[in-house]
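Incident log, structure service

09:12 report received: a user says their structure output differs between two submissions of the same chain.
09:20 pulled the input from the user's history:
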Amino acid sequence: MCVCVCVCVYIIAEKKPHDSAPKKSRPRKKKGRKKAMTVEEAAVDDYTRDGTVDLNGNRVRRSQRGGWKACSFVVVYEIFERMAYYGISSNLVIFMTTKLHQGTVKSANNVTNWVGTSWLTPILGAYVADAHLGRYLTFVISCAIYFSGMLLLTLSVSLPSLKPPACTVEDCPKASTLQLAVFFGALYTLAVGTGGTKPNISTIGADQFDDFHPVEKSHKLSFFNWWMFSIFFGTLFANTVLVYIQDNVGWALGYGLPTMGLAISITIFLLGTPFYRHKVPTGSPFTKMARVFVASLRKSALSLPSDTTLLHELPLEHYASKNAFIIRPTPSLRFLDKASVKTEQTHQWSLCTVTEVEETKQMLRMLPILFVTFVPSVMLAQVNTLFVKQGTTLDRSLTPRFSIPPASLGAFVTFSMLVSIVLYDRFFVKIMRKLTGNPRGITLLQRMGIGLVLHIVIMTVACLTERHRLKVAAEHGLVNQAKSTLPLTIFVLLPQFVLMGMADAFLEVAKLEFFYDQAPESMKSLGTSYSTTTLAVGNFLSSFLLSTVSKITERRGRGWILNNLNASRLDYYYTFFVVLNLVNFVLFLAVVRFYRYRAEASDSMDANQEQLKVMGAKENEQEPGNKA
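09:34 re-ran on a clean worker, output below:
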């Protein structure tokens, strides 16, 4: 795996620059002067227009930095980092039940709470990057925290003194307070580290493409598809090789290899430093949004002018000097426009520009979309918890000497998604582009909608499969024998894992691209953290629902989720999820009906430049020497 990845990076890095065409031998003087002017113009055009700089704050040329050459390091980092992360998370519920001796509900909740925290901390990482340190420095510091957590976790599963004794026939000792403190301390240190890496690494990758350059802009449309491809390529390795090592060789080596993989990923990312483009921190997005709320509340009694040009805005030249652009007023959330009404008070907490108000509106308009992605994130949390626990009750043997680890079924999610993304990007987009005229084939919200429908299908299939599993357990008298293996192959669970991969290819990719694309230019990291927030809330909701349903059903008779899955009624629990997904899909249809996509950044910049030209022309006409 390492050799293949490194060869890809080497091939990309060795590509010749575009301006290496052979020179003519004896050019004439006139042609030489014309050629010199062409080269000078090309040099000016070679600078990026999206405000990206190097680490020293200097403008960068697209022929020297950015593009797929820089992205190759970012993508390869993500392959190894995802291998490390999922090498821990994929089989974590098995470690907690077999080594820490925790029950089904408690271990599943511990996993989803940790995963939820790992997806929630990116909000803090996005804030630090956008407001203070920038994406690159925030990312590097977070990598150090991440790696220290991985090292401590590897020690906690390797040293006998940090693990409880193995179970005996009569006794199954619980982990001590110290053992749990070290183990969960390592896990949550790792979660803090991922808070600074997750929201910034994908944004760093997207920053390598200039929205104001037609070719690079087209490349950016495919970036998020291949970004998710790299994520699940690393996940595939984790769900097959690493999970097998953990179950059959040992947890020390099974966690040591992901730690080594993380070290490799960080090294690869740092090697690409000379090729990266960087966005300058533009201040805290939370402070900017808070100012808009405070200013609008202070002027709540005022009336809005009928002419929007009377609202406060900075000159076009101010934005042009920063490679930024003005955002025109929109009719939604008009109450916030009062923050731009001019009064005698000009303090920043009393008066905001129209652009600042519209940026706040953009972040608020995405919130309903964020809310309707919580339920599918709950479904995603079942893959590494209840789906895996179902696999432990089934026949996992392929040969007399080889058995499939239950967590390895997650590899089929990965493989299904890899295939779906390639087919989507290479065929589906091209076909739909001809039919719709949309460069993406279909809109991002339409793509998300297809994913939501697939989630309904997934939980329906999971429900039917579980009913069949329970029927087999009853027919063979194994309902009360928790440790007995049912005479039913583990591959009966395969459809729900494959469908989950297909759903991810639509929903998860579209969700990541949507929140990045629709966020204002100065709040991209915060926008990206929306996609991680939905996964965090989904995992916390999963813990809440699992605990609540388990307690209520146990009080009323037969529990739906017990330590003995053969005596449980997971099929009822999955039916509940089907209904929940149907209700959520109806809400999604209602929300997207009123959503309006924001204008393309490049279109807004071009409009500003055209207006600057018109203003310059008018000024020239007004000069005395230019009068007829």
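09:41 both user submissions now match this output. Likely a transient worker issue. Closing.
09:42 reviewer note: Residues 3-37, 601-605 have pLDDT under 50 and may be disordered. The radius of gyration is 28 Å.
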